[in-house]
Amino acid sequence: MKTGSNGANRRLRLGYNTSAFARTHNMTDIIQQLHNIGYAGVELTLDRRHFHPHFADPDDRRDLKRALVDCRQDIVINVGGRFVLSPVAHEPSLVSATAAERKRFCDFAAEAISLAAEVSARVVMLHSGALPPGVAAGQAWSWLIAEAAQLAQLAARCGVVIGFEFHPAMLVANLDDYRRLKSEVGHDALRLTLDVGHVVCTDTRPVSEVISECAADIVNVHLEDIKGRQHVHLPIGDGDVDFADVFDGLERVGYDGLINAEFNTTDLEVDEWRLAQQTYEKLRRLV
């Protein structure tokens, strides 16, 4: 990790993704503790552990909204959980092999968009999913464009935007793929979740240069450390990401959304709340 000192970055706001909490499940507790640490918001990755629209009752929804208001926390809704709809990671998806699987994912994404409007989230994050074996890339792109267009139209009607994330292991793998999707869909509600680690893995330029190039599209940011351009989300300080460059780039373009640290503690031998505290302390020096 490369760091620097820039006290001018006062508008940048740190958030934290619930994917890091494998053992803490109560969303009210998570929101309160993140607020106590100093985070400005939370990215809720929908799953059975924390909050799942299929299983949440009206009391769960009310408690979530109340905790956000009481703690003055912004929220992003994330539809990219590994096992949110099946025991197979990231399945179904927008490019699953069967129409039934794709519809199941799209219906779930629509529920997430409705939830976002209900809890005053302005961004719903999703990604394409991986190209299934035996499916031609051209066919998968055709499915993806049609479904993303429908979801963008729904998001616009609900007053939210989609923050679409490119992911090295998925059909939409890099910034050029995102641009292709954006051009084909042609709807302003389809925007970009910029994952800094994914930029490092797929682009050799400084992250700040990429930020400047796609600034108008960025509505959500994911942050993690990366070592050797290998797609493994590491704690801040354990990799090679130049965070001074990242934050300077975000400040220069006037980015005002959440910057959400994103880890999965089932992949890391760490105490999940110590990681949240240490992440905030390390990143606070830059913002």
Order of SSEs: EHEHEHEHEHEHHEHEH
Put simply, the count of helices is 9
- According to CATH, the homologous superfamily is Divalent-metal-dependent TIM barrel enzymes
CATH fold name:
TIM Barrel
Q: Name the poorly predicted regions.
A: 3-9
User: In angstroms, what is the radius of gyration?
Assistant: 18 Å
What does this structure look like?
- With 287 residues, the chain is an alpha/beta fold.
- It has one domain (13-284): TIM Barrel, CATH 3.20.20.
- Helices cover 40% and strands 14% of the residues.
- The protein contains 9 helices and 8 strands.
- The chain has helices at residues 27-37, 58-70, 99-118, 137-158, 175-185, 196-202, 207-213, 243-252, 272-284, and strands at residues 13-17, 41-45, 74-78, 123-126, 161-165, 190-195, 218-223, 258-261.
- Strands 1-2-3-4-5-6-7-8 form an 8-stranded parallel β-barrel, surrounded by 6 helices.
- Helix 1 runs parallel beside helix 2, helix 3 (99-118) runs parallel beside helix 4 (137-158) and helix 7 runs parallel beside helix 8.
- The longest helix is centred in the middle third of the chain and has 22 residues, at 137-158.
- It starts with 12 loop residues before the first strand and ends with a helix.
